Amino acid sequence: MSDPMVRFENVTKSYGALTVLDQLNLDIERNEKVSIIGPSGSGKTTVLRMLMTLERINDGVIWVDGEPLTHMDRNGTMVKASERHLRRVRGKIGMVFQHFNLFPHMTALQNCIEAPVSVLGLSRAEAEARAAELLDMVGLGDKKGHFPIQMSGGQKQRVAIARALAMRPKVMLFDEVTSALDPELVGEVLNVIRQLGAEHDLTMLMVTHQMGFAKEFSDRVCFFYGGKIAEQGPPDKLFNDPDNDRTRQFLSAVLEAG
Amino acid sequence: MSIWDWDYVWEAMPYLYQGAIVTVQATFLGFAIALVLGLVFALVRQSQNRIISGVMAEIVEFIRSTPLLLQIFFVYFVGPQFGIVIPAWTAGIGVLGIHYAAYCSECYRAGIENVDGGQWEACTALNLSMARAWRVIILPQAIPPIVPSLGNYFIGMFKDTPILAAIAILEMLQRAKNFGAENYRYIEAITMAGALYLLFSLVASVIVQMISLWLNRRYHLQ
Ligand SMILES: Nc1ncnc2c1ncn2[C@@H]1O[C@H](COP(=O)(O)OP(=O)(O)OP(=O)(O)O)[C@@H](O)[C@H]1O
Ligand SMILES: [Mg+2]
């Protein structure tokens, strides 16, 4: 059982002539919390989207929990994964988006029970009980019957986190989940993520511009530059004593911007 | 001879009533076909397969760019030469439905494309099946905003029903005309038909607005 939870093996992604990720190799251990930082356009979001199967990869293999995600075995050879295979393996992964992507025509509770009922096959009662628990956990026990339009950005994002957790993923992906929030609402979302990290067995991969949070929360930080990992390491090292000039430049630019 | 004679009005009434029933039935049946088939067209159009979606687009374009009357003639008069005999009523309603399905499918398409792409991404991330995503997430957001434009086609189809007279279906306007011909006097019957069309259109547009409001409220959309 020493397989990493997630493995990117020589993964290449391009849009037409633009190579966004170039032969990416990245292993993420079980329960590891990894932050991805880097300048705009460096491919951070793309890494998460490929893992969530929202983007097809052009080359390489992505592994999840010891089995290939992007490929499957057919009579001893690796072939491109079928939709069925994708559906099975991506069940281990949950994602939270920058713009929440809540279902606007459903209440917070309905948002959290739709997939557990229709995909996992839970009974309505079971799903509701679990969703209520999760909404309590993110501090929204009293907002179960609210529609997204009736909630603040921070509340919406916390519902989105509960909704993803309701599918019992092993890996959670966060793509700049606080970037669309008013500054005073960032804290409540980060607190929920903190709590998740402390109380649940979850592998977490997050793209963030919150350097303070990345430093405090992650086991490892990866600095992306031009579709490659330019530098990675424990947050103390990466933030305080980076080896790479580009990392240093990026960090000082970010610090200046506040 | 007065310009307006109420005796003719009373006499024409039962006659027009018969026609009105035919007109209303044709509109409802035809539009039911248009709503369902239009959605099917729109969904096929969204197919990942370029060929399937392209062929569907061409079919829709073809239907929209030839006259309704020609399509009805084609099915009703040309069909039998190839041994395809369809009763007038079936042919009329069917062609009305298919013709308007092409227009409705464009409404649906606009509605579907207006749903935020993030909704599909959430469906994938939550592992919903394609069918479930369409039915429970995408369409409930896509359809309420387009109810008013679907409603316009409903009224448009209603106003197109006199075309059915071309294949000997006695709808309301044809009856009014026949009544006029029999009595050498058209003004009452034709005016009454006009008033009824107006009345139905007004009622229909109120109903459409109510459905639109109700759906938007039901699905908590703007
Ligand atoms: N669908 C697409 N089609 C073409 N190019 C794309 C597409 N999606 C992303 N790209 C390009 O891929 C590159 C990497 O994008 P990505 O979204 O991963 O960057 P990012 O590191 O998340 O940036 P940001 O910090 O601005 O979110 C960018 O140059 C972007 O323009
Ligand atoms: Mg991004």
From TrEMBL, chain B:
Could you give a GO molecular-function term held by this entry?
Answer: transmembrane transporter activity
Identify the keywords attached in UniProt to this record, alphabetized. Amino-acid transport, Cell membrane, Membrane, Transmembrane, Transmembrane helix, Transport
Single biological process term from Gene Ontology: amino acid transport
Cell membrane: present as a keyword of the record? yes
Domain called ABC transmembrane type-1: residue spans: 20-208
GO cellular component terms listed in the entry, alphabetical order? ATP-binding cassette (ABC) transporter complex
Q: What is this protein called?
A: Ectoine/hydroxyectoine ABC transporter permease subunit EhuD
